Structures are given as C-alpha cells and as structure tokens.
Amino acid sequence: MADLKVDLTAPNGKKITLPTGLFINNEFVKSSSGTKITSINPTNEQEICSVEAASAEDIDKAVAAARAALNHESWRDISATERGALMFKLADLIEQESDILATIETWDNGKPFADSQGDVGEVISTIRYYGGYADKIHGETIPTTSQKFVYTLKQPIGVCGQIIPWNYPLSMAAWKLGPALACGNTVVLKPAEQTPLSILYFASVVVKAGFPAGVVNITNGYGKEAGHALASHLDVDKIAFTGSTATGKQIMKTASINMKNITLETGGKSPLLVFEDADIEQAAKWAHIGIMSNQGQICTATSRILVQDTIYDKFVNEFREAVKTTSKVGDPFAEGTFQGPQVTKAQYDRILSFVESGKSEGATLTAGGIPCPLNGKGFFIEPTIFTKVKNNMKIYREEVFGPFVVIVPFKTEGEAIAMANDTTYGLGAAVFSQNLELSHRVAARIEAGMVWINSSNDSDIRVPFGGVKQSGIGRELGEAGLAAYTQTKAIHVNIGQKL
Ligand code: NAD
Description:
A hairpin with a 6-residue loop joins strand 5 and strand 6 (47-52). The protein is built from 16 helices and 22 strands. It folds into two domains: 5-267, Aldehyde Dehydrogenase, Chain A, domain 1; 271-460, Aldehyde Dehydrogenase, Chain A, domain 2 (3-Layer(aba) Sandwich). The protein is α/β, with parallel strands linked by helices and 499 residues long. The model has no long low-confidence stretch (mean pLDDT 98). Helices cover 37% and strands 21% of the residues. The protein is globular. A seven-stranded mixed β-sheet has the order 16-17-18-15-14-19-20, with helices on both faces. A six-stranded mixed β-sheet has the order 11-10-9-12-13-21, with helices on both faces. The protein has a three-stranded antiparallel β-sheet with strand order 7-8-22, with no helix packed on it. It binds nicotinamide-adenine-dinucleotide. The site of nicotinamide-adenine-dinucleotide has 24 residues, from helix 8 and helix 9. Residues 163-167, 190, 192-193, 223-224, 227-228, 231, 242-244, 247, 250-251, 266-267, 299, 399, 401 line the site of nicotinamide-adenine-dinucleotide.
C-alpha cells in the first residue's frame, strides 16, 4: 500500500497525494499483471505519473467484490434513506475537495480550470440529486380482480459495469454512479486510459464517505483488456457505456454473451439550424459555445451549423467574430483561457487529419485549422471553421471531436429538416428562430434525443440526456436516468381464488 500513492505538485502549485492503485473493496491494490498507464499532461507533453492498469484477472476480482457487496447486508439491507444519506455525505466531501479534484482534472485532461470547477460542481449536484431520489423509488399496486392483489417492486439491476470516456472524466463518472447507487446497485467503473487520475482521488473520498467495501470499485485500464473483460464478464448484469459509436457497437456485441442490460451514449454530428428571423448575434454566440467549448470534445457538440441562405454571410461573420473575441487558446490554468489543448496527441492528429481531408475534398478553410503550441509544446489547435462544404464530404458526415465546425446554407424549412436528419447520428440539435410555431414544429421533426431552442448544449442534470439512431440506447440524468438502473418485479398475491 505504501508505494501505491504519489506526491505531486500541480502546475498551479497545489500539493496532491494521489493514490495510484486499482480501487477494489475500498482498498488501493496493485495490478496482477504489473501493467501501468502513464498519464501525459497535454499542455506540455510531460509525464504526470503512472497508475496501475487492470488485467482481466483484476476485473474478476473487482466483479467478485461488487457481487459480494450486492449480497451483503451492509448494502442490501440498509434503508433507502440511509443509502441517500451516504450519497449526501459523499457530495459534501467532494465539495470540500473540489479544488484538488478540479486541479487534477485540468492537469490530466487539459480543460480550462474554470471548466473543471464547473464539472466538479456538476458532480456534487448529480450525487445530491440522485441521493434525494434514493428513498423515492417505489413500485405500484395494480388492480386486477377481487381475488388477487398485485404489487411491483423496483429492484436494483445488480452488478453494473460502467465504461466512461475522457472528455468529462469526473462528470461522466457521476452521471453513472449517481443513479446506480441511488437504486442500490454495486459498480465496477472503468475510466478512460487517457484520463486516469482524478477518479483515483475521487475513490479515496468514497472510502471516507463510508460506503461498504465493494459497492464502488474503480479499475483504470485499457479498453481492449479491462473494458472488454468487463463487457464480457458473465457475472456482470449491466453495462453502461459512453464513448465512440464504433466501441459502443463492439460492446453491444460483447455484452450479448449473457444478455446484459445495456445503456449506450455514443457519438454525434449534431445540427444547429439558424432561420432567417433568428437573433443572429445570439445565435452566433450560442453556436460558438455549442462547438468550441471543452475543446470541441463534447458528444452533443453542434458541429454542423445550417444557416438559411438569406442570412448566411451575416451569420458567418458574426460567428467568426464570436470565435475571435471569445476563443482564447492557451494555458488551461491561466485565467481567461477559453480553450486548452486537445486531450492527447492521437486526438490532435485526428483533428488535423480532418483539416487535411476538408481541404483535399475542396471545402474552404475559413479560419484556424493549424496547431498553436505553447512554448513549442502541447496539443493546441486553433478553432477551425470550414465553409463551402458539400454533404458527401467526410468533414460534414463524421464526428471530429475537436474545435472544428462546418457552416452550410439551406433554402427552406423542409430542406433544413432533411439536412439535419441526413446523418446516422441523433444525439442533440439546436434551432434558432423567433417564430414559436416554426421552432416547435422543427424541434418535433428533428431526429435527436435532445433539441435546444435558441440555445445550444446548456444541458441540465435534471433533464434526460441521450440519443436516437446510432447515438445510443437509453437515457441518463433526470428521473429517466433511474430506469436504467432498476428492474421491475411483479408480485402476484392470491387473496381468495380456490381451485
Ligand atoms: P472509445 O469509445 O474507444 O473509448 C471510450 C471508453 O471505452 C474508454 O474507457 C475505453 O477504454 C473503452 N473501450 C475502448 N475499447 C473497448 C472495448 N473493446 N471494450 C470495452 N471498452 C472499450 O473512445 P476513444 O478512443 O477514447 O475516442 C475515439 C472517438 O470517440 C473520439 O474521437 C470521439 O469521436 C468519440 N468519443 C465520444 C465520446 C462521447 O461522449 N460520445 C467521448 C469520447 C470519445
């Protein structure tokens, strides 16, 4: 145990003692294979530290711990109110540690410090929101005949495997842990290998909050090993996944081995429609937030902007102005930075390859599209705008996952809807218009799990979040998020029927 932590000094001067083990049964332990993940600071490309990475054998141990906890009276039999109280305690402790958690997040992921503080705030709210639900989850009685009494129980699904991405490491963990714990499940959570650090500090807070051993297990590891071991495990009852559509499809196949319950939240190429009667300045500002915040690494990023032809030039100018005045790229710990580095070299290379693709297919690079390193280092890319984009181009069809947008004109409402829906994805969408009838009519016809009218990406933890088509299955957040973590059992009671 002694060597399973490291003393670090963050770029903002904060001293942090970080556990580096796999978190199983409320203890930090070594990986059985000796495999490690080395975390790189995307701002200066230097190593931060190495942490243990789970093998299939370690996943076995974590699943066994979660199974034992599920069946142990300390979790199975505590009242739902006590379960909620544990979650409130956890939220309070996270609040006390929020500066350290936000520091680790920015260091490891590259997002601006104010954004990390916002993410930690969301973690606290999410845990509290679902903690409040813990003792308000109940079944119903169903009238049938006078000789029968029927009631239903809402029971936990069981051992839940949760596989999360690197774009919001702590928030994604909270979105999944909150409802799972409120409903009485136990969890093995596998963070993304690109951002393994903040969740380890979070794990130490779980112990302090007093959760029984094995209720929450956190196993850093690589997707193809640890992730696959979890998705294919015969003693795991559910997999909840957020990440790419390709991996989501793979996980769906793998999870079929024992017909696991699944929730998937995958990719998007979300449209943002601007009609000619819109408040163009507001539309441009929201459109900027919708694609450029979090370095463009948002699954619901409104990455295809469709603008009515009569206002197209005016909108493009306003949008460029919003980028120029707001998108300050630089040190994520510096005050006023809007955009930090991309999370990894791989993502940085991928985005630049989309820039090349756009140019070679004949689109016009209107702004950005080039690296902008800090002191010669870091995975920074200037906010990128392409115009003169055709609907068969790769940059119009594929998710880039960076500060990268295409702006395309449309003529009529019908054409706008057809263009919005011309994608295999269906996660988010935004509509800008001051016409009430038009905006609600269009919102109803867009194939997406979420539509914002006159805003973009101002999601809320109290509101269901998820996609249609190849953007996912099921919903997270809001009351709807509880459905993913409960199953309904029907109890039939004979009160007089004689044979
Ligand atoms: P990914 O889907 O490969 O990884 C997401 C998570 O799945 C990680 O924890 C990873 O370890 C795990 N994983 C990978 N392969 C697995 C497997 N075979 N079995 C089980 N788990 C597995 O995403 P990525 O490689 O980090 O990013 C690639 C692209 O995914 C991005 O460019 C972006 O388009 C998209 N992405 C989307 C989201 C989102 O929120 N929708 C988040 C991150 C990435």
